[in-house]
Amino acid sequence: MSLSFCGNNISSYNIYDGVLQNPCFVDALNLVPHVFLLFITFPILFIGWGSQSSKVQIHHNTWLHFPGHNLRWILTFALLFVHVCEIAEGIVSDSRRESRHLHLFMPAVMGFVATTTSIVYYHNIETSNFPKLLLALFLYWVMAFITKTIKLVKYWQSGWGVSDLRFCITGIMVILNGLLMAVEINVIRVRRYVFFMNPQKVKPPEDLQDLGVRFLQPFVNLLSKATYWWMNTLIISAHKKPIDLKAIGKLPIAMRAVTNYVCLKEAYEEQKKKVADYPNRTPSIWLAMYRAFGRPILLSSTFRYLADLLGFAGPLCISGIVQTHAFTSETLSSKEFLENSYVLAVLLFLALILQRTFLQASYYVTIETGINLRGALLAMIYNKILRLSTSNLSMGEMTLGQINNLVAIETNQLMWFLFLCPNLWAMPVQIIMGVILLYNLLGSSALVGAAVIVLLAPIQYFIATKLAEAQKSTLDYSTERLKKTNEILKGIKLLKLYAWEHIFCKSVEETRMKELSSLKTFALYTSLSIFMNAAIPIAAVLATFVTHAYASGNNLKPAEAFASLSLFHILVTPLFLLSTVVRFAVKVTNGYFSWGSGLATLSNIDIRIPTGQLTMVVGQVGCGKSSLLLAILGEMQTLEGKVHWSNRNRYSVAYAAQKPWLLNATVEENITFGSPFNKQRYKAVTDACSLQPDIDLLPFGDQTEIGERGINLSGGQRQRICVARALYQNTNIVLLDDPFSALDIHLSDHLMQEGILKFLQDDKRTLVLVTHKLQYLTHADWIIAMKDGTVLREGTLKDIQTKDVELYEHWKTLMNRQDQELEKVIRKTLRRAMYSREAKFLCAEEEEEEDEDDNMSTVMRLRTKMPWRTCWRYLTSGGFFLLFLMIFSKLLKHSVIVAIDYWLATWTSEYSINNTGKADQTYYVAGFSILCGAGIFLCLVTSLTVEWMGLTAAKNLHHNLLNKIILGPIRFFDTTPLGLILNRFSADTNIIDQHIPPTLESLTRSTLLCLSAIGMISYATPVFLVALVPLGVAFYFIQKYFRVASKDLQELDDTTQLPLLCHFSETAEGLTTIRAFRHETRFKQRMLELTDTNNIAYLFLSAANRWLEVRTVRSSHDFEMEAQQKGGLVQRGSQGKGALSVLFFFCVCEEDWPRANICCQSSSLFSLEEDCH
């Protein structure tokens, strides 16, 4: 057949009625804009692009400049799709003619190339910041709009209408070209790059000028956002070197914790103002969260709705593909075009691509919003902790375990609740649309299936409420268990000295048994929920098809049967989500203070502390000396009276607690405590506290990390570092709570003489010293004597000698006894011997630690491999019998489900009411009913087996973990931060208890579904095996690169969470010291930095998961279309098997849980590995 632009018919070249009356000429005219654009842009694109560049040099080229950016990309993609339809229509129309008419599809091909070139050209203009070159695009859209309008008018004059596909395509292209022309006009109006004297200058976003910001999702173009193309560099580089914090950089400003905290706080303050006039109403944190983060949630919901609506294109396309149609006319109508099997295959491919794109966009927006919310909530929780009264912590009203639960579990659960919100809102739309389409396919019998779903929905809701109650009960027991575990860990040395480990372990085990009892209820309802999710679709299908077989007079066709099955498959998701649903320095007048019990611990306190003098507080043990300091600092509840501070002094306080508190940092950082380093002052402080000999013995001097509990140091060394911290700060007031308690007599005397009398008093600083060393009273300018929570005497030593002779004589006797002890120590000259012994002890300790990780940060960054052995250990911890039962029931269940679909395919292919008797109908219905009943029963067995195995494994793993921890050597507790140990018993145990079993069930279900789908598709469409090979190769390389990057990012997420948890626990333990030093702001800033670091790691991990989803899903869709086309789609005479093949492929493409669950399970295994080892 010869080729020609207008065909071989001479009439095609007739122009007697005018050139515009010739359709071939009009099509040729439509080539002009495309040729113009290609001629103009190709030299610019391929010959030295980039000679003109932005004056602002940044580290990447993905920032946005021009208005209407996203709209331009959307319109361009829509135009490309219409061009594809135009090409298809032209080819089909040309195939029905005797000669080739290139004008039917060649302009569309050129249009597709030109449109693709236009978006590439625009992207390069945008990244080079040279808007004048956009003038070529403006001219192109104007010319394209004019030529398409001419073509549309000629079609209208020829009598064509909306029923003709070519007319519809041309009309849509006129609209799209007009809109793109309007976008270009708007760019000219805003940027003024032509036709105006003063062009507008645009600066790049502030984040992109910061070289440390490497999370580019908010700034890249729409295509890169949809495909996560910007992640390619990071994913590929992970194969060459591990991903570290430097590689992922900082968070953009809008995503930082402080930004979102301010936003949430302002929204909450608005709520407080609204209810200020209503005493009985409390401000709603939920409304505040909606005001602060409602817009992205609505955007995510919109994406979710679009994805759900596109999901229904699958069943409709399956119905059309299974049916066959023959067409004979030369021109296509819209209806005929949409009934073509190959067109439907392409539409199914595009619909699924768009559905997954919108779905991934919804996931990303929700996760990003959840991370922002989590950062804001962590900041609010931290501010609340800083305002807690010391009594709340000392009386057990708030424990480290509860704080750990808030930070590690409950904020994450709230984040995941936010993740489920769009799914919950989209659920009614899915159900209603599904029922409507089912009714359209099967008639009134579909209402029976819908009735089954509606009747069982209350049961689902009941199970969901019970599940929430069980989870709440479990959380209460978990908090109690963590509280007891925390008490054991804090007093572990005493327990080991008295060999009480097993007694206290038994107490924890008793609480754990209560928790396990609640977990049994939780597991039961979880298994029932999983069972209902799997059984309801089977029951609905059974009821629908049996009703249709007996009540309808029509035969059940393959198109109807398998389109209905795919609709029931879609309904599984909303049903699942239904079940998955908190001028003096200081003066105290008439003070009464309490630790929160309502009873006054300190009473009738009337004291004053002179400015610039040494005030000593003395008294017997338990008389209230330390409480007096804490009352002055505001840590006790004030029942009556008031503490008066001068404005200058209130914010200039240094404090050393009786119990030493150190940061997980170097010696130098613990002493300077955020103040600027002054070498001369630092040396004077260390000399005054006799620290220099101890520092010289440390392996790295004052740069040695000493941990949150002073793990490398003795009690005296820790005490002197805390005192040195107080001395180093340039504050007006210094409060020292018994700094001599852990020191020997000689060191106490040296600290008193050099540190207090010389260093502090030379600076004329106000000093309050709580002490039992009465021999130092002669140096005091002011003395406060305490007894039984009240002030016994107050004044100078001479005043007390005059007014209370008995008390003075008692002090004199004690002072003489202490002086005698000091003389004995001096005569024996034990100072050098003491330091020698300390040196030997520390050297021996360092030799023992030589083979271990001396630096705790090194432990954090150890890269681990995929813990397959840990996975096996978890499975076997549940018992080999339950493991065997789970595997066997799973295999049997999926075999029955495949048999149900195969039986339906055989039924719809061979059964016909006209030529078979009643017995045959009964035979097929009976077989289908038996298989469905067996499937429902096996769903119950598998769900119960998985949950029971998970519960048994959780019980055994926690028992082993507790015994290994408690029976560990003292050295382990000295070298391991408390927050790290508590994390094993809180977040990791929670993952093992509640997250791994349902994830394991979903993973096995999805994996077996994929395997059964591959087997069934290969049986029904053998040519699919040809497409399976490149599909497997593509998946292999995608997983190969993703696995390494995901492991590094998961490790970064874990290792950045631990410092955050430790910071919270450090703050809770050192609350008094932090507030006394007025360092709340510095610690808040540190918390915000740690939160942002953890959030950026999690955000990159989420983006990597989206990167994997986009590539694996799209590869599946590509090869789905290829296999369908190679197999000729559905052959006549084998419609049942062909429909079965298309159904399984649709189910696999819809099933994104295998990939998601593998990622989730891998993440869980890292937590499991920590507990196992």
Automatic annotation (TrEMBL):
<dbReference type="InterPro" id="IPR050173">
    <property type="entry name" value="ABC_transporter_C-like"/>
</dbReference>
<feature type="transmembrane region" description="Helical">
    <location>
        <begin position="104"/>
        <end position="122"/>
    </location>
</feature>
<feature type="transmembrane region" description="Helical">
    <location>
        <begin position="134"/>
        <end position="153"/>
    </location>
</feature>
<feature type="transmembrane region" description="Helical">
    <location>
        <begin position="923"/>
        <end position="946"/>
    </location>
</feature>
<feature type="transmembrane region" description="Helical">
    <location>
        <begin position="871"/>
        <end position="888"/>
    </location>
</feature>
<dbReference type="InterPro" id="IPR000388">
    <property type="entry name" value="ABCC8/9"/>
</dbReference>
<dbReference type="Pfam" id="PF00005">
    <property type="entry name" value="ABC_tran"/>
</dbReference>
<dbReference type="InterPro" id="IPR001475">
    <property type="entry name" value="ABCC9"/>
</dbReference>
<keyword id="KW-0067">ATP-binding</keyword>
<keyword id="KW-0472">Membrane</keyword>
<feature type="domain" description="ABC transporter">
    <location>
        <begin position="586"/>
        <end position="813"/>
    </location>
</feature>
<feature type="transmembrane region" description="Helical">
    <location>
        <begin position="445"/>
        <end position="464"/>
    </location>
</feature>
<dbReference type="InterPro" id="IPR011527">
    <property type="entry name" value="ABC1_TM_dom"/>
</dbReference>
<feature type="transmembrane region" description="Helical">
    <location>
        <begin position="342"/>
        <end position="359"/>
    </location>
</feature>
<keyword id="KW-0547">Nucleotide-binding</keyword>
<dbReference type="InterPro" id="IPR003593">
    <property type="entry name" value="AAA+_ATPase"/>
</dbReference>
<feature type="domain" description="ABC transmembrane type-1">
    <location>
        <begin position="884"/>
        <end position="1112"/>
    </location>
</feature>
<keyword id="KW-1133">Transmembrane helix</keyword>
<feature type="transmembrane region" description="Helical">
    <location>
        <begin position="31"/>
        <end position="50"/>
    </location>
</feature>
<dbReference type="GO" id="GO:0032991">
    <property type="term" value="C:protein-containing complex"/>
</dbReference>
<feature type="transmembrane region" description="Helical">
    <location>
        <begin position="1016"/>
        <end position="1038"/>
    </location>
</feature>
<dbReference type="GO" id="GO:0140359">
    <property type="term" value="F:ABC-type transporter activity"/>
</dbReference>
<keyword id="KW-0812">Transmembrane</keyword>
<dbReference type="GO" id="GO:0008281">
    <property type="term" value="F:sulfonylurea receptor activity"/>
</dbReference>
<dbReference type="InterPro" id="IPR003439">
    <property type="entry name" value="ABC_transporter-like_ATP-bd"/>
</dbReference>
<feature type="transmembrane region" description="Helical">
    <location>
        <begin position="71"/>
        <end position="92"/>
    </location>
</feature>
<dbReference type="InterPro" id="IPR027417">
    <property type="entry name" value="P-loop_NTPase"/>
</dbReference>
<keyword id="KW-0675">Receptor</keyword>
<dbReference type="InterPro" id="IPR047080">
    <property type="entry name" value="ABCC9_ATP-bd_dom1"/>
</dbReference>
<keyword id="KW-0813">Transport</keyword>
<comment type="similarity">
    <text>Belongs to the ABC transporter superfamily. ABCC family. Conjugate transporter (TC 3.A.1.208) subfamily.</text>
</comment>
<feature type="domain" description="ABC transmembrane type-1">
    <location>
        <begin position="306"/>
        <end position="587"/>
    </location>
</feature>
<dbReference type="InterPro" id="IPR036640">
    <property type="entry name" value="ABC1_TM_sf"/>
</dbReference>
<dbReference type="GO" id="GO:0016887">
    <property type="term" value="F:ATP hydrolysis activity"/>
</dbReference>
<dbReference type="GO" id="GO:0005524">
    <property type="term" value="F:ATP binding"/>
</dbReference>
<feature type="transmembrane region" description="Helical">
    <location>
        <begin position="522"/>
        <end position="546"/>
    </location>
</feature>
<dbReference type="Pfam" id="PF00664">
    <property type="entry name" value="ABC_membrane"/>
</dbReference>
<feature type="transmembrane region" description="Helical">
    <location>
        <begin position="566"/>
        <end position="586"/>
    </location>
</feature>
<protein>
    <recommendedName>
        <fullName>ATP binding cassette subfamily C member 9</fullName>
    </recommendedName>
</protein>
<dbReference type="InterPro" id="IPR017871">
    <property type="entry name" value="ABC_transporter-like_CS"/>
</dbReference>
<keyword id="KW-0677">Repeat</keyword>
<dbReference type="GO" id="GO:0006813">
    <property type="term" value="P:potassium ion transport"/>
</dbReference>
